[in-house]
Fold this sequence. Notes:
By secondary structure, this protein is mainly alpha-helical. Helices cover 52% and strands 1% of the residues. The protein is built from 20 helices and two strands. The chain has helices at residues 4-17, 25-37, 39-49, 53-64, 95-105, 116-127, 130-134, 139-142, 175-185, 203-220, 235-247, 258-267, 279-292, 321-335, 352-366, 379-394, 407-414, 418-433, 443-454, 458-483; strands at 157-160, 163-165.
Amino acid sequence: MVSFDSLKSEYERNWANLEIRPSRLADANAIARKAIKGKATYQQIERLTGVPWHFAALCHYRESNFDFDTYLGNGESLHRVTSLVPKGRGPFATFVDGAVDAFRIENFVGTQDWGIARTLFRLECFNGLGYHAKGCNSPYLYGGSTLYGPPEARAGKFVADHVFDASHVDSQLGTAVILHAIMTLDSSITFEGSPAMAIRSEPDDDMASTILLMQQTLNKLGANPPLDEDGISGPKTKAAVSQFQQRNGLQDTGLLDGTTIAAVTRATAQPIQMPTVDLSKILGRLENLAQLLQPGATPTGTTPIATPPAGTTLAGQSIQLPQILNQLQSLTQALQPGATTSVSTTPAANTTVGVLGQLLSLITKTVPGTPAATNPAPAGQLKQVVDLLSALLSNKPVLGQVNGALGDTIGNLLNGKKTALGIGGSLITALLSAVTASPNAGGLAGLFGTIASAVPGLSQFALPISLALTAWGVLGKMEKWAQGTAPPPKPTS
Length: 493
């Protein structure tokens, strides 16, 4: 990064040695008189920003040749929105309003150090520091002096964007030359009281580290042409920022505002690459795990995914918990990119819930990023995987085919209750069929009579439903007994 401190002595030396060429002295004095003529307007800007009036006059000369109907930031008309960097500024009611905006963008408002070295540094930053790398003094500062061009010094000019011609001599007078002429005509300007060392960092210095980071980031994103990583928001940096804003749907200003800085930073964040996992391997391991949940079963890995029998819990005596944890640990390793499939024989270091939670987390993170070409498992099998692990993790029994026929919600609601409801319903409908409607009767007889008369033929269709519900409940209990997962009998005293 190019810092002011690294160039300070060079600016001071050049200022001490600056001489206006005799052939250009008359032109320099004429321009100086124009600057002094607008002193009152420039002093208004100084009162609002703290930027010395002569610095505003020099910027005005280079940007628009003292035209007070222009924006100080780029020389465009005050009366329409700017289309050159900085873009989107204005329109402004007065020249002073536009100048205050331009200096605020450059972080000059509130600055304290306006010694000759700092003044020349800021003037050159307005145009760019590219001449330092070419071994010649900038004509933006020293054009028309003995510090630029033959026979005393080297020539050279950027004749187009990023095109440097070492033999070209810029005919325009430099800002340091004009400042020298102004000071000859106006003795109120002096640099004798300027501090030798800055007592604190300047606002534009504080911004330099952020600008440097943005230049480095834009270069990584492919800025064309590559930016000089100098911490100076010169024309090239502003143009690169403008291009980034256009590509990313941001307001095109060419300025590093908060929104643009955040977008540039976010653009460099690399998306997380999800590992590619063959779900067929995962399903095979889950088959082994599911078979371990079946009493007396041997894991073969060749049958479809089994569903744990209803009522099975991880604490059941028929389940070998160490084997299950080993299977889950092995499955977790299969989901880890680059991991081996070796299985630890001592899973005590991982709790049951911890292992299952890790496995579920890995599956849910991996499956969405798995390419279709490497995912041979159909969606139905994947749902079985998630259902199986969810049931194991929550320690809730998975419904069998009988109890699960109506789905999870109704199946769980009626699980273990269908037989009782069916028998109770059969008894009630049998009683209703024997009741004669007697509205004047009291007690249960009156109640049953009222119901029987309100719904004609109630017993004829209610009784078959109750009997079917009873049979369904008996079938569900037989399924549980066949699987060995029926609840144990309650102890009797």
